[in-house]
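[09:14] KT: can someone run the structure on this one? pasting the chain below
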Amino acid sequence: MKIALVPPYKPVGSKYQMTNEGPLAINEVIELVTKRGQMEGVELDIADAYPIENPLEERDEIFLAEITPGFLRKIKEYSEMGKYDAIITNGSIEPGFFAAREISKIPIASGPHSAMYMASLIADRFSVLELTDAMAQIVRHYAQTWGISHKLVSIRNIGVSSIYMMRLLHKYKNKEERLRALEVKEVIDSSIIQCTAAIEKDRANAIILGCIPLQTYWDVFRQRLDQKGYQEIPLIMGVSAALEMAKAMVNLKLMPSKRAYPSDNLERQPAFR
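[09:31] RB: done, C-alpha cells below
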C-alpha cells in the first residue's frame, strides 16, 4: 500500500527556515510509528507541502485561513497522481478537511479526526493535549463539527508555540541530547502535569497528543505516565491513528460519501438538508 503524507504547509523565508515542519518532526513520528509495527506493508512518502512565504507565527484561525488554499491544491495534486492508494494529513489545526474529502480522488484521513474517533472507540471521555489556547479552540471547533464533542472532556495546553517546539527540535537534532536539555525537560514536565490533570480532574479515559512536535515525545510521555501509575490510559498519536484509518479505508474500498461532502455536480441532488 502506498500512502502520501501531505503536511499543511512549507514555511519559506529566513525567519522561519529553522521551523520547517517537514522532515525532522515528521520523520521522528514516523520512526515511532514504525517501531510499533504500523509500517509493515506500507510505503509512505512525505509530500512536498505548499510553500507559504513568511507564515504567521500565531497558530490561530487567521493562520488556518492563510494555509488552507495551498493545502487543498496539494491534496488535489497528490490525489490525481495515480501512484498513491490514500492520503494522510498531519498537524492538529490542519486546514480544509471537509473540502479535502470533496477534492480527493482517493481515501484521505486526518490526524485529529482519526485520533478522536479512535479515542471514541476505546473511551467514553478523552482529552487532547495541545500547545496553545488558540490551537485548542480550533480543535474544540473540530470536535463540535465532527459530532464528537460530547466525549471530548478537555483540551489542555502547555502555553508554548509550535515555532518554539520546532526550534528545540532543530537546536537539538539528536533526541537523546534533546531530552537532557533543561528547556525540553520543562516542556515534558508541563505536558505530564496537564496529562495528569486531564486524568484526575477531567476524568479522561484516553489522551490524544495534538501538534506534531508533541507527538515526537510519545514514547517519553508513555514512560512518564506509566511511572505515575497510568498504564491503563491510552495515549494516541494523530499520525498513527490517521495511518490506520487510511489503511482501513483502502482495504474496505471506502471513499467519503459524495452526499456527505457534495459539490454542485452531485448527480442526484437531495430534496432538502
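[09:33] KT: thanks! DSSP finds eleven helices and ten strands in the chain.
[09:34] RB: yep, looked fine to me
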